[in-house]
Amino acid sequence: MKMRTEVDVEPAGSLIDYDSPVVMTGSCFANEMAARLDEGLLPVLCNPFGVLYNPVSIANMLRRVARGREFGHDDLWFHNGRWLSFSHDTAFSSPDRQTILEKLNRSFRNAHRFIRTASFLFVTFGTARIYRRADSGEVVANCHKIPANFFTRELLTPGDIVSEWSEFIAELSEFNPALQIYFTVSPVRHWKDGAHGNQVSKSVLFVAIEELLKSDSVAGYFPSYEIVTDDLRDYRFYAADMLHPSSTAVEYIWEKFSGAFMSPESRSLYERIASITRATRHRLLNPQPDEVRLFSEKMLNRISQLSDELPSVDFSSLRRHFDDLLHSG
What we know:
The longest helix has 21 residues, at about 290-310. α4 crosses α5 and α8 (about 265-280) runs antiparallel to α9 (about 290-310). The chain folds into two domains: about 20-260, SGNH hydrolase (Rossmann fold), CATH 3.40.50; about 280-329. β10, α5 (about 195-210) and β11 (about 220) form a beta-alpha-beta unit. About 45% of the residues lie in helices and about 15% in strands. By secondary structure, it is α/β, with parallel strands linked by helices.
């Protein structure tokens, strides 16, 4: 007897390996999956403009990166003693205008280079609600705690999202013909508008994505929302705020994701590398010199073996960590 409705994810046609760069964009859930990829030193770029929640801001970010248009002083706004950008989240702000401008453009140039040669783009829509500047109509990625009367708020329609993305997907495919685009809906619940408002917003995203999936330039859909709400569907799989998935839920989604998008060989390599990354956070219970030496040498030997197998992977930060630990006594 089946006691739950498990969401099965079919294996993808093309798989992620150590020679296929991955871009993760969108809500904070994109950060969770990117962190897992990074733990195994897979080539990944995540949210170069910070966390973005709505489809318009995500499209604006990718469009600007693809077109190679850097930021200038006119793109900055001064509020409460800090310079900020309405295209970015709050991490991109500074009291010094030149400092933040340089940070914006460093991230921009890195994204332009990375996305041009990336193999996969995963786009995570979080909400269909957007904020516009009341003075210009510009859709903002973040309100930066500026007073509410500076903005107007609206709910996108599925048609708005399809119109925004359809033409741009073709442009993105010209920028990088090898890029495989996948959509997903964030399992994080947006509770500001209550239970019904959250469902309305998510429903708009689902209907829009269903239409976008008809494009030959879109590779598919990953059901992260469905895995949490229809497979796990229990409050024990939510964090303390009852809105974000718990670490257990994120790990479960990662298992589904890696099972669909990575070959057994790549997953095996990933686990070997991730175990070393996790070992950098390990605290020895009784750090005697001999114990530290043996532990460090064991990790360095593993790194050497993996470096021979994967010469394209940069192990320098891991090697440096255990070299420092080895010589710390």
